[in-house]
Design goal:
Layout (H helix, E strand, L loop, with lengths): L1 H13 L15 E4 L7 E2 L5 E3 L1 H13 L6 E3 L2 H10 L3 E7 L8 E8 L3 E6 L10 H4 L4 E4 L3 H8 L5 E4 L2 H9 L6 E4 H10 L7 E6 L7 E6 L4 H13 L4
Helix pairs in contact: 2-8
Length: 240
């Protein structure tokens, strides 16, 4: 916990330094994210403390002069709903899907990562080699997450829904579901945060038809000049 608090304190301090001027439109920006180690880490008080995607997004915020207080942690379903329905709202990290592009502008990419199915290493009887075979199993997904949307669209009916991805790893470890779709950094980070060994789970097939790049995305009704300024700031700080 100490390294998270130290990072959080340094992060907050960085936003007290003098910053470039902020355009009026940027003053209305609100940024939403959810607890998703190692990409986003939220402390017991509900405050964002750090994470691999947080570091990149805050570099963009710093360049724009946005205070760290505009970033809020919320359960994923709420974070996504805010960005989907409210102008000036941004959500991250989020994957791009056809459905989401109706509501969101995928303003800048944060990172690329492949998604695989994971199972308990002890369950050698669960080894699907195709999506058709995987449909027979119980799969843990986060409500309204891009993996939920993708698998639902592929005809998966045995989906176990949860509000966050760390809970899904707990469920997999307890045998409450058979498969879990995740990136390697995602599942490794959550196992570590839960005090579990990486060897507890085994990696299966890659979901190669799933676009698993992670982005920061604005509500599409956000003024174009605000989105353009954020895109320019992301390019200037070399995100990704």
């Amino acid at each position: 916990m100490r390294h998270r608090l130290t990072f959080g304190a340094l992060l907050a301090a960085a936003f007290l330094l003098p910053s470039p001027g902020r355009a009026d439109g940027l003053a209305q920006v609100r940024i939403y994210t959810d607890d998703d180690p190692p990409y986003v880490m939220v402390g017991p008080d509900g405050q964002v403390m750090g994470g691999t995607t947080v570091e990149k997004v805050t570099r963009v915020m710093r360049r724009l002069g946005l205070p760290f207080g505009v970033m809020q942690a919320a359960p994923w379903a709420r974070a996504y709903q805010e960005a989907k329905t409210r102008p000036y709202a941004m959500v991250f990290p989020i994957a791009r899907t056809r459905e989401r592009q109706k509501y969101l502008d995928f303003t800048f990419k944060i990172l690329d990562a492949d998604v695989y199915f994971y199972r308990l290493a002890a369950r050698s009887d669960i080894q699907p080699h195709t999506l058709d075979e995987a449909r027979r199993y119980r799969v843990c997904v986060v409500l309204n997450d891009y993996r939920h949307e993708y698998l639902q669209g592929e005809g998966f009916t045995r989906l176990e829904l949860s509000p966050d991805s760390t809970l899904n790893v707990k469920k997999l470890a307890a045998g409450r579901c058979d498969l879990l779709p995740s990136t390697e950094p995602g599942i490794a980070g959550k196992l570590k945060a839960l005090g579990l060994e990486r060897t507890l789970v085994a990696r299966g097939i890659r979901l190669d038809m799933l676009d698993s790049g992670l982005y920061a995305a604005f509500n599409k009704d956000t003024p174009p000049d605000v989105i353009a300024r954020v895109k320019a700031a992301a390019a200037a700080v070399e995100v990704p």
